[in-house]
Amino acid sequence: MSPSLDAGPRTHSIACMPGDGIGTEVVAAGVEVLKAVAKIGSFKLEFKDYDWSSETYKKTGKYIPDGGLDELRKHDAILFGAVGAPDVPDHISLWGLRLAICQPLQQYANVRPTKVFRGTQSPLRNCADGDLDWVIIRENSEGEYAGQGGRSHKGLPWETSTEVSIFSRHAVERIFRFAFETAQKRPRKLLTVVTKSNAQRSGMVMWDEVAAAVAKDFPDVTVDKMLVDAMTVRMVNKPKSLDTIVATNLHADILSDLAAALAGSIGIAPTSNLDPTRQNPSMFEPIHGSAFDIAGKGIANPVGTFWTASEMLKWLGEEDAAQLLLDATEDVCGQGILTGDLGGKATTQEVTNAVIKAVQTRANKSKSS
Ligand SMILES: NC(=O)c1ccc[n+]([C@@H]2O[C@H](COP(=O)([O-])OP(=O)(O)OC[C@H]3O[C@@H](n4cnc5c(N)ncnc54)[C@H](O)[C@@H]3O)[C@@H](O)[C@H]2O)c1
């Protein structure tokens, strides 16, 4: 599944899965923008739509049809919206679609960059442009979301339930290697390992030990360790002191929502679910969910999906196009064309149109210079 490095036009096949709620609105916007970027670049994007969603589940009893994962494996990448509907329990929708893709396709590294875009504002009083520029690496295959657990004596007063966290040396070591490599590629070469080894004295202690062992292979990366509770305080009080952050599946899930809010809105944050071995397609999605409260109103912020699309292009080897899309998105924020979550009045379509125009303007400028 690795991108072709040959010269000449390349074609990337994208599985497009909008899912539920605003997922359908932001993915449609993302595809529009990606088509505009591809027109300018020397590559082609082929999209295939998959209507796997809570609607499909309610009709067929399944989120993913038989053989569905093999279908997905034929693509170079997956662009995903969100899953979740008011009339389907969240654990059914999450495990039926998103986790049912991430886990078998071994997308074990979840990458969540966050920064404050030009023209937007952090809710933090003293957070200037550039003070908050982080990448959160989330272990995406096991930990607290390993799926191990059960319920006995359901509904009875002595009912018992377990939710077991799994930490395997194999998975912990590979996520640390990935995190150290990510930190090493960033200018500050600074990695913060988030843990909870004071209270969780088995899995989290091994987590710390593996971090220390892997650190020896990356002498140029400065590493520090934070308990997850203290980490929330540091993110708020000293955003500039952080750069790359690695945490377990649950811890990073929570910290990355906080990160997005500190950067201005959950509507701008992207996620990549990567199989770093490139044996399976990776999946790209905005961090946010299906947002029932604003679905169908045309006001969802598409910026998180545009940044996601940019990350997808980068993974596919289209680095220039990825940067063009990210820069154009930031231009539009800088012009004050913002949706309601960022304090503006623009609709999803207005932001989308503005980003397409900004892509074209930047491309024309670089042609004539
Ligand atoms: N990856 C996923 O598919 C994923 C992630 C999170 C939640 N969910 C699901 O989504 C459903 C709703 O969950 P939730 O309400 O906890 O989280 P959510 O992210 O959908 O919404 C949280 C709040 O943020 C706002 N918001 C989110 N995205 C926005 C955007 N692009 N533009 C403007 N505002 C935005 C919403 O309006 C809402 O007020 C649930 O079913 C949940 O399980 C799915």
Descriptive overview:
With 369 residues, the chain is α/β, with parallel strands linked by helices. The chain has 11 helices and 12 strands. The protein has helices at residues 22-40, 54-60, 68-73, 90-102, 169-185, 203-215, 228-237, 249-262, 303-315, 319-334, 348-368; strands at residues 10-19, 43-49, 77-82, 109-115, 133-139, 143-152, 160-166, 190-195, 222-227, 244-247, 270-274, 282-286. The strands form 2 sheets. It has a 10-stranded mixed beta sheet, sandwiched between helices. The structure holds nicotinamide-adenine-dinucleotide (NAD).
Key descriptive features of the protein:
single chain; 369 residues; alpha/beta; two-stranded antiparallel ribbon; globular; disordered N terminus; binds nicotinamide-adenine-dinucleotide; NAD; metal-binding; TTC_DH; NAD binding; manganese
